[in-house]
Amino acid sequence: MTPFFQNKINRIWCLTVVGLLLLNVWNIVSNTPMVLDQHWAQKIFYVHVPSAWVGFLSYFVVMIAGLMFFIKGDEKWDDVGLAAAGIGTMFIALVLITGPIWATPIWGKPWIWEPRLTTTLILFLIYIGYFMMRTFGGHIERIRRYAAALGIIAFVDVPIIFVSVQFWAPEIQSHPQVEMAQQPIGILIPFLLSLSIFTVLYTLMMRYRIHVIRISNSGVENV
Amino acid sequence: MYNYFGYFLTVYLIVFGVIFGWFFNQIRLERQAINETSKLNES
């Protein structure tokens, strides 16, 4: 197998993503309005929410890959699930790091045990368990089956995170109750742009990670 | 009074630093895997 960046399409894809990310940061810094009570801290939202989106999208891919693994029985779906689980967990970790950094000046404390934060932390811990199972689970065939099942079950937490703001009493919520569509256009457009750019970044990361997993597996299979 | 710009800068450095680190790690893992596969093929 050849290195990922020897392929011209992959190189162009990567350069496009780098260009889009630079454009995104420039747009956030220079073109988005400064919100009075949050100043620069509000601009954290433009990378915090897209990180969460990519994390949840990735866990959706893990669930689909798990279902396909059980239906088709093809180990290629396990590679997809493993790649998506790794990338998803990295982005959810970023959400759990950047959220408290934003909360420190805005809420006055980095962490509150409110529904959305708690359910996100639970999802992250489930995936820590997922990787522990993949590392210490025993025979590879059994690991693949358990990982597919866990990926499907873990996804149940994602809609719970989304509805947690409405599901639990408003008194215990710290997250804003405002819908994204109600945001001013000056915030909404850069936010949607950032969301799209993070999604393009995610497609590149998935493609690269699957490539690396397959090269590693081909080495193991040759032994 | 909080230094809001400091919080903003910290978050952006962490997010883009982690993404850059991820790509760096994949390049390292890829090279390692290719080297191991070519050694196995030679032997």
Q: How does this model look, in words?
A:
By secondary structure, chain A is mainly α. Chain A is built from seven helices and no strands. Chain A has one domain (38-170, 182-214). Helix content of chain A is 77%, strand content 0%. The relative contact order of chain A is 0.16. Chain B is mainly α. Chain B has one domain (1-35). Helix content of chain B is 91%, strand content 0%. Chain B has one helix at 4-42. The longest helix of chain B is centred in the middle third of the chain and has 39 residues, at 4-42. The mean pLDDT of chain B is 92. The chains are: A mainly alpha (223), B mainly alpha (43). The interface between A and B is medium-sized, with 36 and 26 residues.
- Report, as a whole number of angstroms, the end-to-end distance of chain B: 65 Å
- Quantity of strands of chain A, as a count: 0
Encode the helix/strand succession of chain A as letters: HHHHHHH
How does the major sheet of chain A shape up? none
Rounded Rg of chain B: 19 Å
Radius of gyration based on Cα positions of chain A:
19 Å
Question: Please, what is the average pLDDT of chain A?
Answer: 92
List the helices and strands and how they pair.
The complex is a heterodimer of chains A (223) and B (43).
Chain A: H1 8-31, H2 45-72, H3 75-107, H4 115-136, H5 140-154, H6 157-167, H7 185-222
Helix pairs in contact in A: 1-7, 2-3, 2-5, 2-7, 3-4, 3-5, 3-7, 4-5, 4-6
Chain B: H1 4-42
